[in-house]
Amino acid sequence: MNKYISLIFSLFFLGFIYAQEQKNELLLKYNKTIDSLMQISYERGIFNGNVLVTRNDSLVYQKSFGYTDASEQTKLTKKSIFNIGSIGKEFNAVSIIMLIEKGELEFDDKLSQFGLDLPAWSKKVTVKHLLNYTSGLPQIDYENVENEKDILENLQTLPNLLFEPGTNYNYNNNSVFLQKKIIENVTKKTYQEFVTDNIISPLKMKNVVFDPYFDYPNITRCFDVDKISCENTSTSKGWLWVSIDDLNKWITALHNNKLISRVSLELLLKNSYFKNKESSLGSSHDSFALHLHGGQSYQFEAAFLSELKNDLNIILMSNNKSKGFEITHSLYNIMKGKSFSIPKKSIYRQIRSKCYDNIDLGIQYYYDLKKSSLDIYDFGNPKELNALGDDLVASKKINESIEIFKIAVSEFPKNVKAYNSLGEAYYKNNQYDLALVNYKKAFELDNTNIKTKKRIDKIKNISKNN
After folding, report:
1. Which residues are CB-neighbours of 109 under 8 A, at least 6 positions away?
2. How much is the pLDDT for 449?
3. DSSP class per residue in 234-254
4. 3-class secondary structure, 287
């Protein structure tokens, strides 16, 4: 009898060893394929940052590519801390849910309850509206505010909402600012203190910091396509910078119900009002099988794609914004055994300098490359031309931006962003008739865009008065 037991145990042990070897071989195969993709992406100049892939608590791949800033003096490490843009908004949303689960807050609580001295419209805006960006609040007026005091004062003098709460969608940072103020009102702590006590410390997140100073340890600084450092300031406080390992801790804890319940997680993963709009946690499939979120701030870019059932996390963080989202999806396809594409070189990066020096020569260079190198450069992504046009606008090269946006609408006649951007460039150039034509086209393609409708109405009023 003991012999049979020993034999069964030995067979079981051998089977376990074999399964582990098969698993290790598969992980090694993934690792090699991912490394090839990332090396090519780095060599093509479309990724400078950190990447991490984990599955079922096993490390599949982790590596750093490039430098902490434009000087290229210090290489990135896994401890490097990045601005993660809108992904940071997950922390305030989950904090709100934690308070709701404790019974200290309710979804239907009105904004007027929290002592912020806001106008009458605050009696109609609920916590739920803020979480789903359906409050009717506009974007922060960045041209006229410099700090949190200004933001609050601006809201206190806001006469009307853009729309009746719950009837439309407008992604904005005023909603995020007010969520943090609600957390502070309820807990009698600063937002930073609450997140530290209830999230950062329990999860043992070690390389994180709120609103870091310039030379904070392991800090990264963003830079543009010409290796020029970009500014990195914020009008509001409470933005969490994290390392890639700590972001992985956050995602894993969230999906394994270490912070909030599964019911609450699914509620946050799905916009409660509009099926096709982002939620506080980014986006998810109806089955909640996948969780996707991305964030951008100046030239910082972060993206993750997570498969909840298989505990698969794919995370990219960059301080030199380029093709992070495309690379993330290619990595996911590798992990699923599907065909994947190697991201092409950025046409925006290639022609940017020439367009700044001489727009006509830059445009000619664009068309020359399209004839000779269509398979090398990314001509099929409207974000490329839109990004270049936005850069030119930011540099007050309005006429040059108009020429780029004209190409964008010609190449991508169904791209709403291109028409909106061309309309805005014409508007800044006081060419109101042409601005109106392009804004109307954008609104035809997406009649839910409140900002476009407001701009159309404003131009019509200008035309009346003239």
Report:
1. 126, 127, 182
2. 85
3. -SSS-PEEE-HHHHHHHHHHH
4. coil
Phi, psi of 69 (to 5 degrees): -160, 180
Q: Would you state the pLDDT for residue 93?
A: 98
| Distance of alpha carbon 126 from alpha carbon 93, whole angstroms | 14
DSSP assigned state of 416: H
Q: How far is CA 58 from CA 1, 3, 91, in A?
A: 38, 36, 25
CB count within 10 Å of CB 396 equals 9
**What predicted TM-score, i.e. pTM, was given to this entire model?**
0.84
Mean pLDDT of the chain: 92
**Residue 421 region, left (φ>0) first, then alpha (ψ -120 to 50), else beta?**
alpha
Residue with tokens 């006590």: 197
Q: Which value, to the nearest 10 degrees, does the dihedral of the CA atoms of residues 278, 284, 286, 289 take?
A: -170
Q: How far is CA 224 from the centre of its chain?
A: 17
Question: Tokens for 262?
Answer: 């599964």
Cα distances from 447 to residues 453, 454, 461, in angstroms, run 8, 12, 20
Burial 12-40 (b: 16+ CB within 10 A, else e): eeeeeeeeeeeeeeebeebbebbeebbee
For residues 317 and 44, the model is more confident at: 317
Residue 7 banded pLDDT, cuts 50, 70, 90:
low
> Phi/psi of residue 300, each to 5°?
-80, 145
Instruction: Tell me the backbone φ, ψ of residue 340, rounded to 5 degrees.
Output: -140, 160
DSSP conformation class of 311: T
pLDDT tens, residue by residue, 400-426: 999 999 999 999 999 999 999 999 999
Q: By the 8 A CB rule, do 176 and 91 touch? A: no
Handedness of CA 145, 146, 151, 154 (dihedral sign): negative
Q: Left if phi > 0, otherwise alpha if psi is -120 to 50, otherwise beta: which for 300?
A: beta
Q: For the beta carbon of residue 262, count every other beta carbon within 10 angstroms.
A: 12
How confident is residue 462, by pLDDT bands cut at 50, 70 and 90?
A: confident
CA angle 332, 335, 341 (to 5 degrees): 55
DSSP per-residue string spanning 184-237? HHHHSS-HHHHHIIIIITTTT--SEEES--TT-TTB---B-TTS-B-----SSS
* Cβ atoms of residues 96 and 105 within 8 Å: yes
* Rounded average pLDDT over 57-61: 92
pLDDT in tens, 313-362: 999 999 999 889 999 999 999 999 999 988 888 999 899 999 999 999 99
